[in-house]
Amino acid sequence: KIRTFLVGALGLLVACAGIPAARDASAEAQQDNATKPIVLYYSRLGHAEMVATAFKNQLGCDMEKIASKKERSMFTLMAEQTFNLSDDQEAPAKDLTAYNPIIIVSPIYFMRLSAPARTLIEKYIPKGKRVYVCTTSGGPLAGFTGRSIKALAEESGLVVQGVHGFQIGKKKQADFDAEIQQLLAKTPVK
Predict the structure, then answer these.
(1) In contact, 37 and 104? CB cutoff 8 Å
(2) Residue 41, beta-bridge partner list
(3) N or C: which end of the chain has fewer CB within 10 A?
(4) What are phi and psi of 40, to 5 degrees?
(5) Cα(189)–Cα(60) distance, integer angstroms
(6) What is the band of 166 on the pLDDT scale with cuts at 50, 70, 90?
(7) Sorting pLDDT into bands at 50, 70 and 90, what band is 32?
């Protein structure tokens, strides 16, 4: 009986040898053919929304606000940034699998990306997506802040195409439109 079993198993192995191996589903999932960009943003005071709108205007793409459920006081901001707290937010309304790249626009608080943007990156953007992260702040984007944003996105399985900082000052929408137009002329979104 053992000999019959071994002959049968050997026959099965020989028969299976001619069958091509099944495709690796995870490798196929990493090939993302979506080519339509989207801008996702969080804006407490309106500056990040102006930057997001400038991208939308220049690229003719969709835009969606990050749906945070929190009201943010200065104390809340300090606690979120100090203790690396996540945001309480709803998933994006748009299906992010249909978009690539994803442009994230968010303020910097205390030298760190806002909790709503961090939570979006960690929880809602599908792995393998190309992302650009754009920040707003009162001063230039510090090198270590840019590197930490890039590391956060890469640890979440995203492909970082760029991290850019925009100083807010007393700029109006037209100022941000001009800055984004210049940025896209130097660094096209792809």
Answers:
(1) no
(2) 65, 105
(3) N
(4) -115, 135
(5) 12
(6) very high
(7) low
Place of tokens 């901001």: 77
How would DSSP label each residue in 50-65?
Answer: HHHHHHHHHHT-EEEE
Task: List, for residues 116-136, the tens digit of each pLDDT value.
Answer: 999 999 999 999 999 999 999
Q: Specify whether the backbone of 62 is left (phi greater than 0), alpha (psi in -120 to 50) or beta.
A: beta
Single-letter code of the amino acid located at 165: G
What distance in Å separates the CA atoms of residue 47 and residue 185, rounded to the nearest whole number? 22
Q: What pairs with residue 130 in β-bridges? A: 159
Q: Give every CB contact of residue 49 below 8 A, 6+ residues apart in sequence.
A: 41, 43, 65, 105
Contact by Cβ (8 Å): 99, 62 = yes
Where helices occur in 83-142 by DSSP H, the ranges are 115-119
Q: Which of 47, 85, 50, 51 is nearest to 68 (CA)?
A: 85
Length of the chain: 190
Q: Rounded distance, CA 130 to CA 184, Å?
A: 16
Q: What is the secondary structure of 105-117 as a DSSP string?
A: EEEEETTEE-HHH
